[in-house]
Amino acid sequence: MWGQATWPVTLESGDLVLRPIRLRDRVEWTRVRARNADWLQPWEASNPASQGELPSFGQMVRALNEQARAAAALPFVITERVPGQGKPVIVGQLTVSSIMWGSAMMATLGYWVDQDRAGRGIAPTAVAMVTDHCFRALGLHRMEINIRPENGPSLRVVEKLGFRDEGLRPRYLHINGDWADHRSFALTAEEVPGGLLNRWLAGRA
Question: Which residues form the N-acetyltransferase domain (predicted)?
Answer without folding.
Answer: 16-190
